[in-house]
Amino acid sequence: MRVFPDVITETVVGDQKISRDEAGFLVDPSQWNDAVADMLADEQGIELTDEHRDILTFMREYLEEHLVAADARFTFRFLAERNDISISAARKRFFELFPYGYVQQACKIAGMRQPRAWSTG
Predict the structure, then answer these.
(1) How far apart are CA 13 and CA 73, in angstroms?
(2) How far apart are CA 71 and CA 52, in angstroms?
(3) Is 1 helix (H, G, I), strand (E, B) or coil?
(4) Nearest 5°: phi and psi at 12?
């Protein structure tokens, strides 16, 4: 994870002010909530469904439990187990839900900080 972004902007979501880096990632993941997720998804052209929200909830719970964002492979495994499908089918489904990928869309919408570098699975 990046330690400190180069540029920080503030965005108002409802009655809350959130801080984002130059790529639109939250600077402070604790500012995330459903309204923030909806706004971030809307910016990405995604209308969140229950399936999207299940993945985002998994990612958020993983972050809270492990204090780091889940690697893409853990999220694919979660999706596979939840839907009783293979990992490869889960990966394919994931990219149908988040076509621009794990980091660019899922991590951003889930309120993760922008990683320096990351495997996209």
Answers:
(1) 31
(2) 17
(3) coil
(4) -95, 125
The band of 121, judged by pLDDT with boundaries at 50, 70 and 90, is very low
pTM: 0.87
Contacts of 44 (CB under 8 A, 6+ apart): 100, 105, 108, 109
CB count within 10 Å of CB 105 equals: 21
Could you tell me the two tokens for 89? 């089918």
Instruction: Find where tokens 């995330």 sit.
Output: 32
- HSE, side-chain direction, 13 A CA sphere, residue 78: 19
Burial class (CB in 10 A: 0-12, 13-18, 19+), 54: middle
Query: Residue 44 in 3-state DSSP?
Result: coil
Q: Helix 87-97 to helix 72-83 angle, to the nearest 10 degrees? A: 100
Domain ranges of the chain: 8-109
Note the helical H segments in 9-118: 34-43, 50-66, 72-83, 87-97, 108-109
